[in-house]
Design a protein that fits this description.
The chain is an alpha+beta fold. The two termini are 32 Å apart. β6 (194-196) and β7 form a beta hairpin.
Length: 732
């Protein structure tokens, strides 16, 4: 019956023949995503060719670009040859076939004063400039001296990048105007520059930067970093000892080092060299190359990150840490070091939960694919911020709860491996990571814990998951939308497509050659979902990502003259209609079954033969797979239910943390006094669910037994002069 009633749910993707599907073939190969296929040494050698290809593909992703390629007789012959050779290679590869997670867990709102400075920064710098569009960064080398006495940093950053099809007027780098630039070198030669409005601009000389090739720039600077965003670069203390930490999400990297501060333009690799007092330990991204003593009682730390990385994920955590190590054994038997940089006073309290990291990693590897940075490490570094942040290969931790650890680890796939292409799509980071918390609850504590977690993070207010205006941290990191409702999108998607298919989607998304180690949009994730399922999921993503609120259902049911059961579902919300498959749990005399109906309009009816006279109760989405509200209004109930008061069987029973209790009062009785209680086997009162006068009809109550012990209990109903009892079993 499930299959018959759900046939109308979603058209296949192959029925979609719109023109934009054609352009999508090229768009998924464009932007920074394609370059992620050629990381490391190969990319460094072939930068010019690949950058040329990138900008060709960006051009071809537009309909006019295809027409121009075909029709323009003045198109250079060598360029034609290059383009068609490249396109041929693409079609011979598996890329087209395959293509179709700061965790700010939960980042608090910033203060009013801080908000003003962040607002100024984001208003003018939240999008890259036209000239920045024409360059692609491949490598950073950050070399810093940190002065704890003066709270100052000084040093240099080497930037390697490439020029695309059209040469920029200037090479523009994001860098805070509060920092002082001492000099700039291009190809090893000093060059003039402008530094204003948080932008460092170097004139691009025609003779030295040919189209499609690499440039090398070195910027020397110093200054006292100004706090922006959630911290950026902070001189702090812990237990009276100096402590430095960074947190650059969303646009704060520019506040302490010059870079192209855009999440979609990942550098292939980053070197991080830092000199500090000898009592300090520096933790950062990637692998530690050396830790050496230098003059003046100082140490130098040299870290290398050799996976593609966004600027906001580059980090420093500096303190005289207690350092301990563990190991994760991959699904292939490879060993990954797990490194923990812990405040000494937090070591004992954090140890047990940190020890669970490898179990979480095994779980997520089985669900998403192997940990994406197996060539380096994973670990935690305690820091002085109140939340946590998913810095690549080394999460910064302000706490050590299991769910926080799971959230930041989940980000290594959702946020670090695949990064949102812009902060409009931050749900692809934060919603996925929040959902990882639920997956850990499911694994560690069972199904009931999973649903309990999701229910505790449901959001029923206004606003879209898609961030319409990412100009403030409070808009980007809205806990209700970017985190909670976004995690519900995945929860609902899981039910729509089925468990096996859902995790197949996550595997395919994480391993997609055009998205992994690169950046993605909502539409690209949707393409992966549709490719794996063969479903048209346009309605689903439009209503839950770009739409507002949630469905409010009203369910009624009755018997026809032929005793056929009729079920009616009305959507009574004012924010548009939702298209969703809905589970209906039907119980009664010798009947306990679930049917699935396709619901998409204001009023729809469904007729079921053969069971009408036996039905006592119908529950809409009883397991809580849809973000919704439900009102029950039973029509013609006297024809279905007995004419007497009825206490119906609890569902589920046995149960883990809670169960639903229903009773029915016939219309002829009108209003009566009713008391609904839970008693233990010794007759002792446990909970009162109802004690007042109630009207006729079906009444539904939920007993939350999450704090009660396992055992046998009794539901006790006193309705008028009638007494009813039913046994229920709580199993934990």
């Amino acid at each position: 019956m499930v299959g018959d009633l759900s046939k109308g749910w979603f058209k296949t993707a192959f029925q979609r023949k719109r023109l934009e599907d054609c352009s999508g073939l090229f768009s998924f190969l464009s932007d920074q995503r394609f370059l992620s296929l050629y990381t490391g040494t190969l990319y460094r050698v072939l930068t010019g060719q690949l950058l040329f290809l990138k900008f060709i593909l960006r051009f071809l992703s537009k309909p006019f670009g295809i027409l121009f390629l075909v029709a323009n007789s003045g198109w250079d012959e060598r360029l034609n040859h290059r383009i068609f050779y490249i396109v041929k290679l693409f079609f011979l590869s598996s890329i087209i076939f395959v293509s179709v997670a700061f965790s700010q867990s939960q980042k608090p709102d910033i203060s009013c004063s801080q908000s003003k400075s962040v607002q100024r920064l984001l208003e003018f710098q939240s999008t890259i400039t036209e000239d920045q569009e024409k360059i692609d960064i491949s490598f950073y080398r950050i070399d810093l001296d940190i002065d704890f006495d003066q709270h100052e940093i000084s040093g240099s950053v080497i930037i390697e990048g490439g020029i695309g099809l059209s040469q920029p007027d200037s090479i523009e780098i994001d860098f805070s105007s509060d920092m002082s630039v001492d000099s700039v070198k291009l190809y090893g030669e000093s060059i003039s520059y402008d530094h204003d409005d948080d932008l460092l601009s170097v004139l691009a000389p025609q003779e030295t930067i040919p189209e499609g090739y690499q440039f090398i720039m070195e910027i020397f600077y110093h200054g006292i970093p100004t706090t922006c965003g959630f911290g950026s670069f902070v001189f702090d203390s812990h237990a009276g000892i100096e402590h430095v930490w960074t947190l650059s999400e969303p646009y704060g990297a520019r506040c302490w080092w010059p870079c192209k501060d855009d999440p979609s333009d990942k550098a292939d690799s980053v070197d991080i060299i830092v000199r500090v007092p000898s009592n300090q330990i520096v933790a950062s991204n990637g692998n530690l190359i050396h830790e050496i003593n230098i003059a003046n009682d100082r140490k130098e730390y040299y870290w290398q990150e050799r996976y593609p990385i966004s600027t906001y994920l580059v980090s420093l955590a500096i303190y005289p840490y207690t350092v301990w190590h563990d190991e994760y054994i991959s699904m292939n038997g490879d060993t990954l070091p797990l490194d923990y940089y812990v405040f000494p006073d937090r070591y004992e309290n954090s140890y047990e939960n940190y020890l669970l990291t490898k179990d979480m990693m095994s779980l997520f590897a089985s669900q998403f694919g192997e940990y994406p940075f197996m060539g380096e490490k994973y670990g935690h570094a305690d820091f002085g911020w109140g939340g946590a942040m998913e810095h690549q290969t080394l999460s910064s931790m302000g706490g050590y709860s299991q769910t926080l650890i799971a959230h930041e680890l989940g980000h290594q796939w959702w946020g670090d491996l695949i990064t949102c292409a812009s902060f409009h799509h931050i749900w692809l980071n934060e919603g996925f990571a929040r959902y990882c918390q639920a997956l850990w609850e499911e694994y560690f504590n069972g199904d009931d814990a999973y649903f309990s977690y999701m229910n505790s993070h449901a959001y029923y207010g206004y606003g879209t998951v898609y961030v319409e205006d990412p100009t403030t941290t409070s808009a980007i990191f809205n806990g209700n939308l970017s985190y909670n409702k976004a995690s519900w999108v995945l929860h609902m998607l899981r039910h729509v497509v089925g468990d096996d298919t859902f995790f197949e989607i996550l595997h395919a998304y994480a391993s997609n050659d055009s998205l992994s180690y690169a950046a993605a949009t909502t539409e690209e994730f949707q393409q992966v979902c549709e490719y794996i399922t063969g479903m048209d999921l346009q309605d689903f993503f439009q209503q839950w990502i770009y739409g507002e609120k949630y469905p409010q259902y009203e369910l009624s049911w009755w018997l026809t003259e032929t005793e056929e059961l009729t079920i009616q579902i009305d959507q009574i919300q004012t924010t548009g209609y939702f298209h969703m498959p809905i589970d209906l749990h039907v119980t009664g005399f010798l009947i306990d079954t679930t049917i699935v109906v396709d619901n998409y309009g204001p009023t729809q009816t469904y007729q079921i033969s053969g069971i009408g006279t036996m039905v006592h109760q119908i529950q809409l989405d009883p397991n809580g797979w849809i973000l919704k509200e439900v009102n029950y209004t039973t029509v013609g109930v006297d024809e279905i239910l007995p004419g007497d008061i009825s206490l119906l069987p609890a569902y589920p029973n046995p149960f883990n943390s809670g169960t639903t209790i229903n009773f029915f009062i016939p219309q002829v009785l009108g209003e009566i006094d009713a008391t609904l209680q839970v008693m233990d086997v010794n007759g002792r009162h446990i909970s009162t669910l109802l004690s007042k006068q109630v009207s006729s009809g079906m009444k539904s109550f939920y007993w939350d037994a999450s704090v009660d012990a396992s055992g046998i209990y009794f539901i006790h109903l006193l309705a008028g002069n009638n007494i009813f009892n039913r046994k229920i079993i709580l199993l934990k």
